[in-house]
């Protein structure tokens, strides 16, 4: 007798490696800089809204996310039929593959990029086409366009790119979209858009309005600090948004999560103050790292990237010894989140020992 066997592609799914918490060190305050989390507590009114919503946990959430869509639509000036909510923006990537890819169809994306992309593509029975980022961690958009074939159904542009940091400009994105066939879905993953500070930054909403094949994916996990509640959303032309909603898990976004997201949208002034502070911390950390010999990729998210290659695990271990958890990618580099500034002295101290010039 044989036991039940999953589909072959399921056995091939790579494991997602989450950022680990720090190991306690005697005499040291530990800091978790491994998961790109927002270090601030909930925005004003958010905890209260979530607590009030939790009082009705015996009831199912609004499966249509009606109030959340209304709040998002008003905030961005988009029709509610152009929205699709999910349990984090990562769930939307799974739904995109499920909605638009048959087994063997291709999904093109940069690499290294978001770790969930190959997982979602493989889980959906599609085929990953990974296009290497440039030496400075940027998308090679010309190479990505050249990688599109008649089997390609989806291309993903992660901007800012997680984990390397650089963002795509509007001119670069426009030129790329012009090279992609109109039947191919172009996903612009904007999980970190609130942290971008650069010339010619992407206007995602304006871009989706100009194209019938562009999908924006966004999240409340990073800038809004709702990582524990799992709320993401897509902005897309109505037929594409409807396809994402059709393959979503019923009642996926909880009532508490919806209430917290709506309250967060009502506190955007406080949000952007916090984001500006994190951007200042990012600039300070980058400047200090340059002083000790690092030439880092452009950091446009809430993290910095150390292209350490084979030394990545050693760097992470050294950070762990001083009570700092970071996110290593074996053979490639290490991502360090912008969190509590009190942790930066130790990060810089470790980085100085690993600087390329030493």
TrEMBL record:
Task: Name the species this protein comes from.
Answer: Nocardioides oleivorans
One GO biological process from the UniProt record?
Answer: L-histidine biosynthetic process
Bilayer-crossing regions: none
Which gene underlies this protein? hisC
Enzyme Commission number(s) of this protein: 2.6.1.57
* Family affiliation: Belongs to the class-II pyridoxal-phosphate-dependent aminotransferase family.
Q: Which part of the chain is the Aminotransferase class I/classII large domain?
A: 32-349
What name has this protein been given in UniProt? Answer: Aromatic amino acid aminotransferase
Q: Could you tell me which PROSITE patterns the record lists for this protein?
A: AA_TRANSFER_CLASS_2
Cofactor(s) annotated in UniProt: pyridoxal 5'-phosphate
């Amino acid at each position: 007798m044989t036991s039940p066997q999953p589909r072959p592609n399921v056995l091939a799914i790579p494991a997602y490696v989450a950022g680990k918490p720090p190991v306690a060190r005697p005499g040291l305050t530990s800091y978790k800089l491994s998961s790109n989390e927002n270090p601030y507590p909930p925005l004003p009114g958010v905890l209260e809204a979530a607590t009030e919503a939790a009082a009705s946990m015996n009831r199912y959430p609004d499966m249509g996310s009606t109030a959340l869509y209304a709040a998002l639509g008003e905030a961005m000036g988009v029709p509610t039929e152009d929205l699709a909510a999910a349990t984090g923006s990562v769930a939307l990537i799974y739904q995109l593959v499920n909605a638009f890819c048959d087994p063997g169809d291709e999904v093109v994306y940069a690499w290294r990029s978001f770790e969930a992309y190959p997982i979602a593509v493989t889980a959906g029975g599609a085929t990953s086409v990974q296009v290497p980022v440039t030496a400075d961690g940027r998308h090679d958009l010309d190479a990505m366009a050249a990688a599109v074939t008649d089997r390609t159904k989806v291309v993903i542009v992660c901007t800012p790119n997680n984990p390397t940091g650089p963002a795509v400009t509007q001119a670069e994105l426009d030129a790329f979209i012009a090279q992609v066939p109109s039947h191919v879905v172009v996903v612009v993953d904007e999980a970190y858009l609130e942290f971008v500070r650069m010339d010619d930054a992407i206007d995602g909403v304006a871009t989706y309005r100009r194209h019938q094949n562009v999908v924006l994916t966004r999240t409340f996990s990073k800038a809004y600090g709702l990582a524990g509640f799992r709320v993401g959303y897509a902005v897309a032309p109505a037929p594409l948004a409807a396809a994402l909603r059709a393959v979503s898990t019923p009642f996926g976004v909880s009532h508490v999560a919806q209430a917290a997201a709506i309250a967060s949208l009502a506190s955007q002034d406080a949000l952007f103050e916090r984001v500006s502070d994190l951007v200042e911390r990012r600039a300070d950390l980058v400047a200090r790292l340059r002083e000790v010999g690092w030439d880092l990729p452009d950091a446009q998210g809430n993290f910095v990237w150390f292209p350490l290659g084979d030394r990545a695990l050693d760097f992470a271990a050294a950070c762990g010894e001083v009570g700092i958890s970071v996110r290593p990618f074996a053979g490639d580099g290490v991502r360090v989140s912008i969190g509590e500034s009190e942790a930066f002295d130790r990060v810089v101290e470790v980085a100085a020992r690993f600087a390329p010039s030493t």
